[in-house]
Amino acid sequence: MSTRLLLEHESVCQTLLHTDHAWLARTSLDLLRHDVVYAVRTVVRDGAGRVREEEREVAIVFQLFPDHPRVAPLVICQQDDVFNTHIHDVRRGDPPVSVVCMGTFHAERRLGDWVEAVWDVLAWRRIASDHPLNPEAAAWARSQSGDPGRWPVDPREFARPRRSRALPAASAQKPDEPAPARLRILSPWRSS
Predict the structure, then answer these.
(1) Torsion angle of alpha carbons 80, 84, 90, 91, nearest 10°?
(2) Can you give the CATH number for the domain in which 82 is found?
(3) Is the C or the N end of the chain the one with fewer CB within 10 Å?
(4) For residue 134, what are the domain limits?
(5) With bands split at pLDDT 50, 70 and 90, how would you rate the model's confidence at 162?
(6) Residue 23 and residue 12: Cα distance in Å, rounded?
(7) Has residue 147 been placed in a domain?
(8) d(CA 184, CA 130)
(9) What angle do CA 56, 63, 28 make, to 5 degrees?
(10) How far apart are the first and last CA of the chain?
């Protein structure tokens, strides 16, 4: 296993330690795949074409490749009804998965950065207007832009605010105490 994959895994874990809105559901033994679940208010479109906001858990797969970082990660939304300018609508044809366009992956960045950036996509903090992956979602977003308070759909910050001072020792988690279930990383492909 490469040092880079270990660094990527650690970056995902560290990013998720600072939020209440996402957690690591699974990771593969080879650390090439990380499944992250987001609890977010986002926009969905049902089979009849109706668009609405909805609070839900959205599962996202971050797939790395053996020659990472020369090859960018593949990011896939597990739900096909999430309606977003950055997410391919499988009903439009190829590819048959809801690929999430995250832009260019630079080698100096870490996968944990993309974990946080996906929150911005799902919460509609980041809206692709020039080159959307889903032109219908972009047209819908333009039709909604008249309301100055419209965006983001989920106004919460991804990361918890940093505390200005350390917690008292009595309230700190003891080393032998298990981590909260959503932060505990179990063996690969077992849910937490």
Answers:
(1) 100
(2) 3.10.110.10
(3) N
(4) 3-157
(5) low
(6) 9
(7) yes
(8) 39
(9) 90
(10) 24
> 3-state DSSP call for residue 173?
coil
* CB distance 129 to 101 below 8 Å: no
Residue 26 in tokens: 């699974």
What percent of the chain is helix, strand and coil (3-state, nearest 5)? Answer: 20, 20, 55
Rounded distance between C-alpha atoms, residue 64 and residue 18, angstroms: 23
Whether residue 176 is contained in a domain is answered as no
Q: Does 172 fall in a domain?
A: no
Residue 9: name the closest of 24, 40, 28, 31 by CA: 31
Higher pLDDT, 25 or 94: 25
Count: domains in the chain = 1
Cβ neighbours of residue 84 under 8 Å, at least 6 residues apart? 42, 43, 121, 122, 124, 134, 137
Whether 170 is in a domain gets the answer no
